[in-house]
User: Fold these one by one.
Assistant:
Number 1:
Amino acid sequence: MARQLKGIPQPVVRRLPKYLTQVQDLRKAGVEWASSQDLAEALGLTSSTVRQDLSHLDILGISKRGYEVAALERALVGALGGGRTWKVAVVGAGNLGCALAANEEFREKGFDVCALVDTSPRVIGRKVGRLTVEDVAALAEIVRERGVGIAMLAVPASAAQEAADKLVAAGVRGLLNLARAHLRVPAGVAVVDAGVLENLQELSYLLHLSRA
Amino acid sequence: MARQLKGIPQPVVRRLPKYLTQVQDLRKAGVEWASSQDLAEALGLTSSTVRQDLSHLDILGISKRGYEVAALERALVGALGGGRTWKVAVVGAGNLGCALAANEEFREKGFDVCALVDTSPRVIGRKVGRLTVEDVAALAEIVRERGVGIAMLAVPASAAQEAADKLVAAGVRGLLNLARAHLRVPAGVAVVDAGVLENLQELSYLLHLSRA
DNA sequence: TAGATTGTTAATCGATTAACAATC
DNA sequence: TAGATTGTTAATCGATTAACAATC
């Protein structure tokens, strides 16, 4: 009966967090049922897309009522990693790295940021939120001892590949790459690229387009 | 002869900043020519995709040599907003907002962060890098006087729509949404969503998948 | 020249949308 | 019951990949 969690298409996977946010909001608002149409309007999609998307999850809707909000939340959480907590390390204690390390929301949502490392003696030892900046030389040990599964890379582009290599060698299996560099990793390691500057450049294109 | 800059498909637009990064690296390294195959290897694409992508730009390659690095850089910069500088406001002076406001790289790349605003009297007046946190009440005036075209939203999800409405009313035409909320904006306003938590959740899915 | 590499067309692949019988 | 909404199939749309004549 359990649907396969494997092989959800990437565009769908990227929408799942958005469904989850919306569904959690609905639950907090005391809403018990949501139709594909309701969800579509809230997220700017079509109801058809919503039903297709949710068909990948372990949930069935009910005619005339839609999807049960609580059940849908469980199904979304289940698909997005099963509700387990990941240990996360932040590499790079610059402005961005520190901001990420200090963000309490991640912990609430299942991402326990348990280490912040840097190369610079000037920042090693500094307190950031509940963490202390540690020496990147101890990275392998930290990853092993604390069971770090995911790392966020907030280092300069020139240092990104080397940091990624170290992390992978230490056993990290997922990288969130915030650096402006294309990372090469062995099969079995997942990389998700993020980058605010890239996002700004996309915006710039869109604005340039509509002004032209 | 000038190719239309209009209507480059979104997946291509999202790759353009990556080409630009790579091409700038090549130029700095003194490389003068790059073939589609070279670029493909550096970015993890196929040479066919690269040629299709670059066919949207105002540049032609040359058989047997590839693309001239300097010309390609100009074409990419041109497509991504024409090399003009955008005035950018950051809304929300929490950890993330301050980190973004203090980032000098944006300015170098044509995004002049010229304002940082917040609602809280506790942070208004505080210095962040070269900026001082200002009262969100002055937002409309700031946008108008400084010619702000793009805003980065680094506010709690519950405040995001209201902030977006204010920004749009004040004349901002592009929003980079870092909040966990779906923004509704009028036609003619561009929104790009970013969200580190969403990226972590995507990673979580991928890791869950490969472990299962 | 011979061969490498382009720009572009055609084929394939995949995602979104539309449509509708099933059903609550 | 009648009608709203589902899950799923089929149609459409769009992106990626393959192939190749043109060309430097």
Number 2:
Amino acid sequence: MINRDFYTCDGITLAKKLLGKTLVRRIGGDEIGCVITETEAYMGVIDKASHAYGGRMTERTKTMYKAGGYSYVYLIYGMYSCMNVTANAEGLPEAVLIRAVMPYTGLDLLCENVKKYSRRKNLPDKFDTLTPKDIYSLTNGPGKLCTAMNITKALNGLDMLESPDSDFFIRDDGFVPGEILSGPRIGIDYAEEDAMKPWRFYVNVKNGKPDFSK
DNA sequence: CTACGGATTTTCT
DNA sequence: GAAAATCCGTAGT
């Protein structure tokens, strides 16, 4: 089982370690499990792209200052949630944004959520005929994966360590990434010199099939 | 394939 | 009052 030490490292290290781990959401006794394929590191007070740049401490950002392994969920552009995991020790506001996942368990429930909460109009009537590429397109963005897994601000600040009564946590199901690629982070043009830093990490995904061995 | 605008509301200045 | 760690449909190449 993943323990606290796993999260007690800098954000860049954690962003790479989270690739291949399973984000688990339980709703009404059913489980949705999605394997993480893309992450971004936000490096706290020294990172102009970070909400906590310069030590900013507001109602929103205070959960970033928690110890490693807690959820940081916030609303972006008025309509989408973004899911992060805090990194490093308490008082160091580093975090890892989860940018994309691959649906693994609970696909039916996941598809129900997309139908209920997504603004997409061109959804197929029958989800059981979806190709791997179609399925991956339901969760290949930070807002999309939160819609599909019904992750909202109500889940902000929760401990992501696995426990029997938790309905939101991270688990190791044994997926091992192949080559880990990296590049600049997305949507942070305002961050000046930090906008170029290669702090986005991802595995290659071909036709909806990520580069994992198990 | 790329480019653009609209949706929508919390958060911070 | 403006910006925001985004997504989706439409139009153009």
Number 3:
Amino acid sequence: MPELPEVETVSRRIAPRVEGRRIEAVEINDPRWCMPDPPRLLEDRLVGEVVVACRRRGKYLLWELGSLDVLVMHLRMTGVLLVDPDDGTSHVRVVITLDDGTLIAFRDPRRFGTGMVIEGSALDRWFAPRLGIEPFDPAFDAHAMHELTRGRRAPLKSFLLDQRRIAGIGNIYADEALFRSGLHPLREPGSLNRSQSARLRDAVVDALSAGIDAGGATIDDFRDPDGAWGAYQSEFLVHRREGLPCPGCGRAIVRLVVGGRSTYCCGSCQPRPRRRRR
DNA sequence: CGACACTCCTGATGGC
DNA sequence: TGCCATCAGGAGTGTC
């Protein structure tokens, strides 16, 4: 499932192919993609526009247009953008034709992905209630992490998945960051001391960086825009590795469910909190 | 306000 | 071999 490193990978690979290009045509085959707006509305606002910049915010992929509108896309579970997809590629929901003939296809088997056009001046207002700090923002330091955890009582794993606190972490990188920090997924965020908050902050940044360096992880068919598989899934330390040896101590990795999400951790390197919250 | 249940969707998986 | 139930999960919505 595309998380920050996967969306970053898509953005980096696709940017040189779309920036400076004019959108020649847009074909939206699945109205769900831009619901509740009708496909015609998006097509009309996109066709003829120059893509000024392609970038990422949280797990959102943004195309800034010459009109100052922004195409805001979310890949959700199974979405991916492909450059010049092979003939017969299945589950293609949207096709964008650029003025040099390049085709950008949005492929999304489960149809959770979304696209919308927002005025650039309204973008921050739209993100504000949804997305917290960017993990690679210099302001995201140990102190900022400690402040974010104050008073939070839901499990630490759920805290990391809450996009309104920190933007971009999903199920994979939450598990990986928690393992790297040595903290248990059920820890109460508000119970972390300063040094634990600092470790968690570093673990989040390190896990996400490792994912980006590997070109993302291929789970649920994720590919980069050139169709290449990600590599990071082979570097997972704990995620989806139930029963396999912990890279730290060799004991079997365990799976539990936290906040309804599959969660993988080492019972020994990530000591369980003494008492459960109530 | 925080926490949590429910919803969307379809390919993959497992049981018989 | 085929059928069916179950599962996965990001974010929006609704409820307490």
